Batch of 4 targets.
Target 1
Amino acid sequence: MLMTLPDDDTLYEALLARDAAYDGTAFVGVSSTGIFCRLTCPARKPKRENCNFYSNVSDCIHAGFRPCKRCHPVAPAAQNDPAITALLAALDSDPARRWFEADIIRMGYDPSTIRRSFKRHFGMTFLDMARQRRLANGFTALETGKVIDAQLEAGFDSPAAFRTAFAKLLGTPPNSFKTDAMLRAAHIPTPLGDMIAVCDKRALHLLEFADRKALPTELARLRKLTKGDIGLGRFDTTDQVETELAAFFAGESATFAVPLVLHGTPFTRQVWNALRQIPAGETRSYGALAQKIHAPTASRAVARANGANQIALIIPCHRVIGADGSLTGYGGGLWRKQRLIDLEKTYAQRNLK
């Protein structure tokens, strides 16, 4: 059963008691401060009349509240959810497994509750995540093998099902990719999820999380620019991207030296270059970014350019937040944005670049 929140008076009592039973399923927006928190937040408790309760982070943000810096309500509470932890561990131990709701039930969990929890924290269900993990295995196999081998590696019994799933991920079926192309797409696993990198021999053209909804559109745009000259596989550039991403997530370096090709208008490229000048561990508002490029009235255009970025992390659009301190949108998901900001705080604390 999906969890239905009790009345506000009960939630206020839970807030006063710091009741962990509602962690991740209920949040409080405090009108006197403009901040929203977990009910377990250690901060001084607000007055009842200043409290508004919400069932998810998205509603808090849409209501105009910004996340608390003490309890980090946008950070994935999944880390504290034993059911999610157990399912993620099971997925990591056997990424090629085909999961069904019956498997979740056998592990002792209610599928509806699991579905809601994963959607809240990751923007996708556990079954979607498992399917994507299998597809990532097939993607890697496609880089060096045949479609049928990739299909089997991904655990798809049906060639049609594999082609459909692959086309949903990348916007085109696997047999449409050239074998000796100027640009090549490769799968790169990271602690925040699978990423797709598109490189040529000298530079990186695209780097996106595989579950970003805009990925098929971005790849279609690249195919149009290159007249379909995109294949699967790797260049030395791809290996450089993967090595630099590994160092970034390990907390060793926030510097990316791989050359980039920026597919955008002169204005969007100007915004993207300004993004790269924001030090790791710092954030900027859209207005501040507009001031930086000497276009103080162009905050909305800056926001659009920020959203059009197709080289995630390396062009750090995650470092742009609302003027009120709210996270605002992020194509890779707000939970990833919070994780990236938290990770980069360690760079700032150690004065690393």
Note: The chain has three domains: 8-73, 78-128, 177-353.
Target 2
Amino acid sequence: MDTSPLDRVDALLTSGQPDAAVDIVRQAAAAGDAAAHFRLATWHLIGDPLPRNLQAARRYLTSAVAIGHVDAALMEVALTANGGGAPADWPAALALLERAAAGDPLAADHLRLVQAMKLDPSGLPLASPSAEVLYEKPDVRRFPSFLSAAECRHIALAAQDLLAPALVADPRTGRTIPNPIRVADEAVIGPTREDLVIRAINRRIATASGTDVAQGEALTILRYGKGQQFKPHLDTLPAVLNQRGWTMLIYLNDQYHGGETLFPRLDLKVKGRPGDALLFRNLTDDGSPDPATIHAGLPIEAGVKWLCTRWIRQEPFDPWAGVPA
């Protein structure tokens, strides 16, 4: 049986022959193979086995789309919207999505969700979400119905193939171990996965928090099963110059018991309804971590809890720093 030259690529990479693998893919791309163009794009995004080069990745994505690669089309939409490899351009991203939607049901679903949002021509919310103050200092606010039911479903579905047990690096050995604080499955929606729906939601989060979308880390989705929890913790990070100033939590479902968000020092417990968002300030007036914002996700007693979170830095944050493509 004839096989494609690309079938050899993974074997060459596994056997430590990256140069030979790259040569095969480049030859296939020169011959007009859409999958080869897409492979070169992803290698330039990941930075292995080719150096990370967002501009080159965009060029290969564009050529892959022109040949007819569906996955490349959605990735091109994401990078056009969030500025990966070129200035962010919402109108251009929307035009690309409209083109992709003509032949791809998934792109058509994304387009319907975006069209249902109340956005200006640049993709920003037409109005600021309304909030109720739960605590004044530290600043804790709830935004009822921040997301629609369809938007909640979209976020959960976007994470399904990425979910894995939460891990951290052991400071003693450097090895990856289960997170002793956050016992849950998690997924990070990196730049290439930030579809136009999620991009619009991230911009809505920025509007609600009075920050720029560039200050936000990648959206993280969490899934807690029975007995799982997020033990008391602060969201600030040790020894960083660009600290997490704000946290936005968004509750995606209500088919569970337990799992409330608890601020023990504030005597505040929140059980969000689907689509509700919770925003809180992590720092004191002098910019140091605020111990009053210690919080926990209480153990799940029954069912499964879905939540997403976006940590917002004090200054713009590089979305490619430590985030898988």
Note: The radius of gyration is 21 Å.
Target 3
Amino acid sequence: MSACTKRGALAALLVLAMGGIATPVMAAEPGPHDAPATCAGTVLPDDLSGWATPEAVAAARDGAGLGSVILLPGRAVLARLHPAGEMKYARAPAQPGDQGSTGGMMVFQAPEAGTYRIMLGAKAWLEVVRGGETTESVHHQHGPACSGIGKMVDFQLPAGRSVIELSAAGSPEIEIMVVAVP
């Protein structure tokens, strides 16, 4: 028996052993369609539970609109953003984004001085402005697996009003939430 005949016989035996049907199978790459199965039953920690029920709001596009968008600790919002060209930021962001990007602003009223974590559900440039100056972040990390939180950034803030600026976002809306860091 030739080598070619032996390989053919071996292939036929494998087909028979697999139930008589030979179908090519390609490994699938994990994607968004896999998330529900792999993330089923995910429960957020108590301090992040507000993420699951965001309130729809329109982000401010200029200083006049800031009074209508005030974030409260532990309560998520789904903010509708504005085209980059329409934005008039409290302070020009370091990453304003291109003409196709979006942005928005909102106020966070810190009840007391401390470290606050700002969480975003999509990619965007995040800055906190206080008294006309940008506040430096003190820590960055990804959100918990399967939470929908993509980015978490910590800031040391005094009590009182700060403006959160979002720029260079690639989508028309973004989920955002602020929590105190113990």
Note: Confidence is low (pLDDT under 50) at residues 2-35.
Target 4
Amino acid sequence: MKIYSLNIPDVLCFEPEIFSDNRGFFFESYNKKKYDLAFGRKINFVQENQSESSLGTLRGLHYQIPPLAQSKLVSVVEGEVFDVAIDIRKSSPTFGKHVSVVLSEKNKKQLYIPEGFAHGFLTLSKSAIFQYKTNKFYSSDLERGIIWNDPHLNILWPIEKHPILSAKDASNKPFIFSEFFK
């Protein structure tokens, strides 16, 4: 498995070794020992979620504030998405910066997004099944969001028209009014 960081060192991309033959393929999608070694500490994922989204759907940019701030390990089971993580840690040298990667059923990449990051994705295929593990349980009281097209973030979403948004995501706050991490 290849493990590398993107332009923000705390965000890791995992690219599994895929074994293919005439029967299909096999790859190791999760191995706690290998992931703990890559993270440099033990992370216990406590919840796993899946969502299905149609072409042009944008989910995010979500995060939870302490004490239930979440780290996530995200991947795509079916389809393709443009995935984004934004550093919202005020003390970080990369505060307000973002990284993006295309995750798909074909490349089988996973993205680790630590606590202190907002996260979202745009569906690029007809539909996509998105899967993610979290290290803390979901709390609607502690969930926050940043509006997807905030000009301060300068995210170049690969989209030609306005994305499909939930009512909640359409009402997310601008970056400058968001709650940040220390």
Note: The chain has one domain: 2-177.
